Amino acid sequence: QVQLVESGGGLVQPGGSLRLSCAASGSSSDIYTMGWYRQAPGKQREFVATITSYNSTAYADSVKDRFTISRDNAKNTVYLQMNSLKPEDTAVYYCRCWTPGANSWGQGTQVTVSS
Predict the structure, then answer these.
(1) What whole-number distance in Å separates Cα of residue 92 and Cα of residue 38?
(2) Closest by Cα among 28, 6, 19, 30 to 106
(3) Which of 22, 24, 18 is nearest to 63 (CA)?
(4) Which pLDDT score is estimated for 100?
(5) What b/e string do you get for 12-28 counting C-beta neighbours within 10 Å, with b at 16 or more?
(6) How many other C-beta atoms are found inside a 10 Å radius of the C-beta of residue 30?
(7) ∠ CA 35-37-40 to the nearest 5 degrees?
């Protein structure tokens, strides 16, 4: 069982930046892929980005060239650097990880982009 704890959310103006972090504990040595999803009010949860244990990355088209996912395997932590933020990026951001036969979610962190 893996536990995930996100941090780094907050209020930022349009065009600003934030960096989210997600720390894994428990059976974290079994993790092979980590990622970020988000859920805006009244919408379904959607994919944002993933990174494999070999640092292969994938992004949603809506965040490509603005967001960067990275990981520090020694710290069992995944990051999401978000630049050029837009009001439509406002959502609760969730960390997710995959282990053999299972996946885990964090509790989420709120990101609000508003002037």
Answers:
(1) 5
(2) 6
(3) 18
(4) 87
(5) beeeeebebbbbbeeeb
(6) 15
(7) 165
Q: At 45, which amino acid appears?
A: R
Provide the residue type at 41 as one letter: P
Residue where the block lists tokens 């040595």? 29
Low-confidence residues in the chain, pLDDT < 50? none
Q: What is the CA radius of gyration of the chain?
A: 13
Give the span between the Cα atoms of 45 and 68, in whole angstroms. Answer: 19
Q: Which two tokens stand for residue 33?
A: 């892929």
Q: Which of 62, 59, 41, 61 is nearest to 51 (CA)?
A: 59
The H or E element that residue 115 is part of is none
pLDDT digit string, tens, across residues 68-90 = 999 998 899 999 999 999 999 99
